[in-house]
Amino acid sequence: MADPAVLIRPLREMPEAGRLLAQAFKDAWSDFFADRSFEEIEETMFVEGTELPAILVASVDGRIAGTVALRARSVETHEHLGPWVTGLWVMPDLRGHGLGRDLMHAITAEAVARGFREIYAVTNTARGLFEKLGWNRVEEILYHGEEVTLFRTNRRTKRH
Q: Which residue among 108, 135, 154, 160 has the highest number of C-beta atoms inside a 10 angstrom radius?
């Protein structure tokens, strides 16, 4: 079987993906998005601005397969930091094939292209991925009732 055709493009090139991704986020993080409608999630998570957020969408053989974003703000207790990699998500049946890694490489390249030197992220599920990609653990924090790891990478001094 041939490898699937993977494309990673900005959301603005495939705006129809926003609704599907909003539904996927509500399913994946039901506690976090419990009090928000699909429309609210789409309006807050999947609308690009002129600067940030920058939202990338992966498709595999024409099917929406994942997403990641670069946002100016994310963690309220760490407003002094940014920008942030947020919303890294891959369709459950496509996990384990490197798509998360590909999305992370694409969004860090986007950050570098925009002139950002340091990039931050928090996660409770993708710690291993961030570590494999060379991100540095900064601290463990409590975020919306969950213990998460705050990561930082400095792309100016690292090579891919």
A: 135
